[in-house]
Amino acid sequence: MPRGPGVTREPLSRERVLRAAVALADTEGLDAVSMRRLADSLGVVPMALYKHVSDKDDLLDGMVAIVIGDIPVAGAGASRRWRAAVRETILGARTVVLAHPWARRAIETRTLRTPAVLGHMERLTQLFLGAGFSADLTHHVMHLLGNRIWGFSPELFNETPGKPEPVKRRTSGEPDPQDYPGIMLIAADARARRPDATGCDEDFEFDFALDVILDGIARLHRSKWDSTTRTVRD
Amino acid sequence: MPRGPGVTREPLSRERVLRAAVALADTEGLDAVSMRRLADSLGVVPMALYKHVSDKDDLLDGMVAIVIGDIPVAGAGASRRWRAAVRETILGARTVVLAHPWARRAIETRTLRTPAVLGHMERLTQLFLGAGFSADLTHHVMHLLGNRIWGFSPELFNETPGKPEPVKRRTSGEPDPQDYPGIMLIAADARARRPDATGCDEDFEFDFALDVILDGIARLHRSKWDSTTRTVRD
DNA sequence: TGACGTGGTGTACATCGTACGCCTACCGTC
DNA sequence: GACGGTAGGCGTACGATGTACACCACGTCA
């Protein structure tokens, strides 16, 4: 589209590029975010993007940064207990990340050295340090939380809900349910508890796991755990 | 390379294809596993692979299955305590998965509906059920373990060790350490404890997290936890 | 006036997954 | 033996992708 004289299109910017990428991923999925389609959506030629983004990795990092930027900073009330503040921060991250279904996969594959990512980790770290956790314990506790700081636990039995399982033909053998009585048992139990639902109750699983872990953390904190002892029991 | 008359090469098979793919990933990394390069490594034309593997996804699944197949089945001594058996199984998975650096990423991106994957999950499930865990608790506990059942925790601060950080030019701003005093503090603390090491002690972090989680699980089990109460405290 | 930097364009290339059709070697059956 | 079927490897071809490189239009400032 040749732009006529005087018809200046508002110029690109890193911000605009990233926002467009996020929008594209939101509506068409992460795989739809190719440099060409993104450029199309901005009415621009693919190579134009490289003036604002160093490469596709950088683009992905930027998209993740935008999402993370929406995570609310936990209420700064110094009187708050660490546990409530941590819980609130993580659940805040969860609602934001869940609002962008592609974000989970994007975060999992990033190298996580960007200011936005580090900023979120820093805030969590400070919650622990501020509550009197040793640097050592804080460190291990962050690892213990792992990706849960982003508000998601690893998928496990999950299919993406609603997708009707396109029955791909695989060369390998299909699994036979009879071979997995234990899994079938717990699946049946879960169905019995939530007859209308499909798949697992991710929200409950997340809360459950988070609480178990926070309980464990609280116990370590109370017991003045120290890594030189290299044992966890309290 | 035209094969002369009578010079019959040993034929391909799904097994041979998958093993070659694993070998290729082991030596050159997961990204090197393209249909073409894999075909090359087998002295065969790319499309030949599709007679043994339905598509690349299937190939990846098969590779993961091969790795998982190496996970030792925990000693069947029925007298074993569940905790020891679970721990042994998971650590067994860990050594196997760590032997193939690409496996972590491969597992994370699979949909996990293959017999090998389900088999490992079934064995773990049985350990809990066999120890008297309710189906309900077993279910949640599997979610709680998450990817840890494969022997890895999510990376967090990690760079791949040894890689000297190629200093990629990014369009975004580089993070400034001053902005992250908490992270810097725990990093300094970790360095002080292990002056020679680079990065985190993944093995320790894994053990640490696993034990906290197993402690939590044990407590729930003892307290006859039931999801209808929807609370974790004991 | 002219040099220069900023930002969008156009072309080109290597690489990827894989659809489709062919050709050959082997098999069981008559 | 002749013959039809099938399994397995080959060759070609297509559309997508990320991005290197050269180019050029513009505004700014000396």
Automatic annotation (TrEMBL), chains A, B:
Domain of life (superkingdom): Bacteria
DNA bind region: 34-53
GO molecular function: DNA-binding transcription factor activity; transcription cis-regulatory region binding
Swiss-Prot/TrEMBL keywords: DNA-binding, Transcription, Transcription regulation
Residues covered by region (Disordered): 160-179
Annotated SUPFAM superfamilies: Homeodomain-like, Tetracyclin repressor-like, C-terminal domain
Pfam families from the UniProt entry: TetR_C_1 (PF02909), TetR_N (PF00440)
Any one Gene Ontology BP term: negative regulation of DNA-templated transcription
Domain HTH tetR-type: 11-71
Gene3D superfamilies cross-referenced by the UniProt entry: Homeodomain-like, Tetracycline Repressor, domain 2
InterPro entries recorded: Homeodomain-like_sf (IPR009057), HTH-type_TetR-like_transc_reg (IPR050109), HTH_TetR (IPR001647), Repressor_TetR_C (IPR004111), Tet_transcr_reg_TetR-rel_C_sf (IPR036271)
Name of the protein in its database record: TetR family transcriptional regulator
